[in-house]
Amino acid sequence: MKISTKLRYAARMLLFLSEKKETVSTNEIAKGINVSPMYLRVLANDLERKGLIKSVRGAHGGYKLLKNPSEITLKEIADIHETLDLVPCLEEPAVCPFSSVCKMRKFWLGLRETLLNYLDQWTIKDISNL
Question: Considering the domain 5-128 in this protein, what is its CATH number?
Answer without folding.
Answer: 1.10.10.10
